[in-house]
Amino acid sequence: MSYATPEKSSIVKSSCVKKWESLSFTSTLYLRPILDALLESAPALMREELRLGLQEALVNAAKHGNQLDPQKLVSVRYAKAQGYYWWIVSDQGDGFEQQSTCTCLSNLPDEVSDSSLVSECGRGLYILHQVFDQVLWSENGKEVHLAKQLRPLPIAGLVGPSFFFKIVETCWRRWVPTSAPSA
Fold first, then answer.
1. pLDDT of 13 above 50
2. Domain Histidine kinase/HSP90-like ATPase, which positions (predicted)?
3. Is residue 141 part of a domain?
4. Residue 56 · residue 120 · CB < 8 Å
């Protein structure tokens, strides 16, 4: 079980985060513009994975935390520093108590596809733990702290497309006959 008070969270007290950005929105499930804003600076290769994880966190806050009450807000603080993206998602609901036996917290092998294994704590929580490197809940269950480490780019990210085009062109010439026999 990973609980942390905001003051004890490594995300909040990390000295590497110099500036936090923030946004708030009324409880809604229309999250596209919010997700676009939160992922604007994320690398293209990570955007879809992060979109899935953040969408789950925001839906949980709006739907389960705030009960889609338009009078209640979901707040997100976010930053990028020291090779990590950080998010803190807060709601104004009653909070929740995560089950201590939730299997989504354990490292399940990739080949596990039995949905009953994750149903006890919810698909959304399972997704959070698969997408993010760190998932910490506040003790009152009204706030989740998320972190994702930026991965070094593979060689494809270090060289331009023209380099790869030349490699493909060279390989193509080896495999394609230079002249077709006449009939």
1. yes
2. 42-147
3. yes
4. no
